[in-house]
Amino acid sequence: MWKRRKDASTEVILHVGPHKTGTTSLQYFLKKCFGAKDPQPIWFPTGDAIGPAGGHGPLALPFSEIKGYADAKKGIKQLQDIVSSCNMSSVQKLIISSEDFVWGIDKNLEMIRDVLKPRRIHLIFTINGLARRLLSHYSSRLQFGHTDDLESSLTKIMQQPGLQSNIFERHIKAIEPDETSVICIDRSAQPDFLLCEFAKICGLPDSGIAPEFLIRRNR
Asked: What does the alpha-carbon distance between residue 11 and residue 92 come to, in Å, rounded to a whole number?
């Protein structure tokens, strides 16, 4: 865990994944415990900000270069609307979570930083074993009808930004968080490990972690 400064009063918890690291379970937990369309003290925005899988994909993908989604101006407007809502309410912690932030290009990630500042930003990564993620990605490709052989598929998967060695450096440099945390999950971890660790490092109440939150997809 790295900390830079503690002088800002409002905290933005920005979880950027990457994919296949327990994000579905985490976002399900956050939505059930802290999700709301309107601001509240601990706020995981729902409504138009939430994608089908439960994360903030609609907030993240506009900052990418993915055809059909890239629209930085739209992304900035969406983020500004959420921040403005925080300004008019007593939001202590704003939680934004999407593995699709890893697709953001550097100049657009800097735009995210500019919108969120001067609020305190806590950047969070969730990481598990590389082999585990590769196999999970490959399984997803098969489910979506891809017919590449294993070697070709793994070559394409390894080119994804969430699997690049500079993922930490790139996001930290662009977003300039006040604090950065990395939650590492291994095979021996208990099912609720990720949720409990996330709640602990973010200062969230964890009493809401019930068995129904512990879905195992993407872990």
From this structure: 6
Q: Tell me the pLDDT tens digit for each residue of 137-158.
A: 778 878 878 888 888 888 888 8
The secondary element (H helix, E strand) that includes residue 57 is helix 57-60
The whole domain housing 57 covers 2-202
| pLDDT for the residue numbered 219 | 42
Report the C-alpha gap between 57 and 47 in whole angstroms: 12
Cβ distance 185 to 133 under 8 Å?
Answer: no
CATH number at residue 89: 3.40.50
- The secondary structure element, H or E, covering residue 114 is helix 106-116
pLDDT tens-digit readout, 183-198:
999 888 887 899 999 9
Q: What is the sign of the dihedral through the CA atoms of 160, 22, 181 and 99? A: positive
